[in-house]
Amino acid sequence: MANIVYNILKIKSFNQMSTANKNWQWIIITYEVRKNDPPVCDRFEPCCFGHWVLNQETKMEPGMKKIAVLVLAAGMLCALSQGASAIDFSAKGRWAYNFSYGQHGNFTEGGGRTGFSTTEDEFEAAQQVRLQLDAKASENLSGTVHFEIGGYNRGMLQYWGASANGGALGADGTMVKVKNAFIDWAVPQTALKVRMGIQPIQLPDFINNSQVLADDAAGITASYAFNETVGVTAFWTRLFNDNTTSTTNRYPGYMDNMDAVGLTLPLTFDSVKLTPWGMYAGIGPAINYNNVTNTQITTYSSTASAGGPRAGLLPLYGGFHKSKLSQYGNAMWAGLPGQVAAFDPFRISWDVVYGAVQYDDSAMNRAGWLASLLLEYKLDWSTPGLYGWYTSGDDDNLGNGSERMPNIHPNNPNDFSEFAFHGDPIVGRDSIVGKSMTGTWGIGVRLKDMSFVDKLSHTFRINFMGGTNDPGVLKKINRATGVWMAPNDTTVPGREGLYLTRNDSLVEFGLSTKYKMYDNFTVYVETNYDALFLDKSATVWGNSKMNGKSDRSADAWNTAVTFVYQF
Questions:
Q1: What predicted TM-score, i.e. pTM, was given to this entire model?
Q2: Rounded to 5 degrees, what are φ and ψ at 557?
Q3: pLDDT tens digits, residue range 522-542?
């Protein structure tokens, strides 16, 4: 018989008849179906309302009756959903498998230190899986849910052999996470578009993604295009609101939220792009913990991966403050990224950002700035580039807070470095200096996307960088704490990664290769080497303990192969 599609509208009746054999029953089910094509079988007889009735006798075991009901119910739901409205479903996905081998990820060796870092072996095999589902009702309404197995950040992948993340024998780890979940809708008869839910929040930048905030967060974004030249985007995001019920805190559930509102103004001209932006954040003194005491303030425990606000919104050691926090902290940022392509294939891009955080205890304040510049010239076989950046650093006064630019969580790839900063484009080891570039300066040169063979390309870079922090602050910290802070001690509040002074420097060599084996399958090979030069004088790092046992520093390096299937 020909292929005929019938949509089940409802189950009109469900009757059962006993038989001599108690192990069997006759199930008589009457369906009401909508005819999509003319029937070619005498079993179908017409009924009212243009539908057809099917009487079918099915012989089955008693245990199968429930299954039959479920199948019929599922079919009915499908039919009803089809009849209500047409929804276009689409899917996107990515499988990434990374194999890395490296040493000295914390820039130290000896003293019993083994592995790439304190939490990673020299050789690691890991994976990440992402799946995005989109349900589109029309051009004006759609919904998205994005699942992830294994995070993007270093140390958050699904490591082979690790039971905690489902990679050990037996698997079965609880690793499926919601990365995004939002709806997009447009206000009727207007150009206003709205996005609501857990979504990517990223401040504008034409070079490196944002050095202030680039991560997933819950909130609302509204965008309006006045014309092809001028647009505006406003957003509100609730970054934290744990509503703790801890009895050790003064006011459980009180003042433990952190909210941010922002405005961007994208301006697009013939050969110039500018996006001035501003953002304000209110920081509850009790985010995550009710941080109303000195001890709790310097904790900021587990607010975000790889430091988060604990690293980016506080001065060193929390500012050595004496007072309890009782008011919301006020944070603001303003930036002016831009790009000029008037002399194509020559391109100029830049970014300028200023940020400040103020608390009711001024010793905890933090304020600073960043400026970066990129010059590129696109050739047939490659895109040579010259770039540089400078960020403000701490002075030697512990009582006036920090002079480094505050940040919330820069969590998207840094285009200047795939190893020192958070720059790996897929997954892998990076951020060994830090996620953000705060407290550093640098210059670099690169040959991007060199290609001499079809489907094969390379990127080579050399970076020279140093710190902008006053070395005298280390002696002041020693007087206040009785210990010498180590340059790689990420447990100190107000910092993450490597802390570099004006007397320190680092040279980075990086080579990455991309081979597009198939349209949807790519192999990445990368090798990076970071040579560290610390000031080992007695008043700087000469008395520090790099791994708690010695001050023996070492150069960091890593090589990796990543296989990526993406559709």
A1: 0.81
A2: -150, 160
A3: 999 999 999 999 999 999 999
